Amino acid sequence: MPKCKVCKKKLTRGQFCAGIYCTTRWKGWTIDNPPKVEDRVYSRGGKFYGVRTGGTRFCRLEGCGGRRHGVRWLTGKITWPCGKGMKVRKDGALQIV
């Protein structure tokens, strides 16, 4: 029986963890199906990452012209960083600069 890597709860195949800070609790995430590297967005320091929600908006800064990506972080908070303020890492994920 697999366990959640964060809160160590026992899970059956395909079951989600409901822990508040657990990385396996979001839609589409299970022990058997972790998030893809291309969908990850790392923080400025590169220590923490969130997952892109798929939603985008135009950046509201005057003259920017970039797209803002919805990112859900480990705490459950959603932020909208601009794509022009991110770089692509060697592993293919994005990182806020």
Task: Outline the structure in words.
The protein is an all-beta fold and 97 residues long. The protein folds into two domains: 1-34, no CATH class; 37-96. It contains no helices and six strands. A six-stranded mixed sheet has the order 4-3-2-1-6-5, with no helix packed on it. The radius of gyration is 15 Å and the shape is elongated. The mean pLDDT is 77.
Quick structural summary:
The protein has strands at 40-42, 49-58, 67-72, 78-79, 86-88, 94-96. With 97 residues, the chain is mainly β. The protein has two domains: 1-34, no CATH class; 37-96.
- Counting DSSP E segments of at least 2 residues, the number of strands comes to 6
Strand order of the largest sheet: 4-3-2-1-6-5
Query: What value does the average pLDDT take?
Result: 77
The count of domains is: 2
Number of discrete helical segments: 0
Whole-angstrom Rg: 15 Å
Report the sheet with the most strands, covering strand number, pairing sense and barrel closure.
Answer: 6 strands, mixed
Shape: elongated
Share in β-strands:
25-35%
SSE pattern: EEEEEE
The end-to-end distance, rounded to whole angstroms, is 40 Å
* Range of helix content: under 10%
Class by alpha and beta content? mainly beta
